[in-house]
Amino acid sequence: MIKRKIRPAEEETGGLSFTILFAILWYGTIGISIAGNGFQTEMLLFMAAGLLSLYQMFTKIRRALFYRRQRADAVALGDAAHGRIVGVTRQDIPYYTSGRHSHLSYRRYYYLNVEMTDPRTGITTSIQSQGYRRPIHRYLRSNKVKVYTDKSGWKHYLEDFQWKEHRSDPDLFDCPREFEEAYPWNGRIGQIIVAAVLVLMILNLFLNL
Predict the structure, then answer these.
(1) Which of 26, 59, 88, 196 would give a disulfide with 137, using CB separation of 3.0 to 4.6 Å?
(2) pLDDT in tens, 110-162
(3) Residue 193: phi, psi to the nearest 5?
(4) Entry pTM
């Protein structure tokens, strides 16, 4: 069986290992430069620039833990119902990149459409899951799922997914397949290459100060 934990986008902490590695390489390179050439005023700018990635990492962790606590509270509340995944919706959400040269880009999200049945009344309600960055429907072997509702009654959380035995097993829905790793930095090999390039660029920059 495929062992995985696919979380909704708001609960993800993916990419943190790369951010930590980048911070280590960044400040490690600064330390090497100071040790070899002595401290120069320009180093303060580079040290401050490195804080941005650390701040983004800290914010991402806080955000993910905040939403994970909400999920844990809903599960602990125990207001659960049996659900049946009846479809999947794909949306490309627009956003503007940060920085001086910001531009319009898109993030792709996948939403599971679920019919949940209240065990007390037998009434069936249609809900939509939180958005997932990964096509979670491609990894499921069954449409059965458990749905937990928080105390407000507004937010629902899907648990107890049944995963495929093998990735090549038939999909639940007849959706066109997509290439998940369309960008090289999505994979670990791509991250290593990017990190190596960054180190070389930083070293070249410091050696020419």
Answers:
(1) 88
(2) 999 999 988 888 889 999 999 999 999 999 999 999 999 999 989 999 999 99
(3) -65, -45
(4) 0.76
- The three-class DSSP label of residue 112 is strand
- Concatenating the DSSP letter of every residue in 7-39 gives --GGG--TTHHHHHHHHHHHHHHHHHHHHHH--
Which of the 8 DSSP states describes residue 171?
A: P
The answer to whether the CB of 187 falls within 8 A of the CB of 181 is yes
Q: What distance in Å separates the CA atoms of residue 190 and residue 179, rounded to the nearest whole number?
A: 15
**Integer CA distances (angstroms), 41 to 27, 30, 37, 103, 130, in order:** 15, 12, 12, 33, 47
The DSSP result for 48-103, as a single string, is HHHHHHHHHHHHHHHHHHHHHHHHHHHHHHT-EEEEEEEEEEEEEEEEEPPSTT--
What is d(CA 152, CA 22) in angstroms, rounded to the nearest whole number?
40
What's the one-letter identity of residue 120? R
**Residues 143, 150: Cα–Cα separation, whole Å:** 22
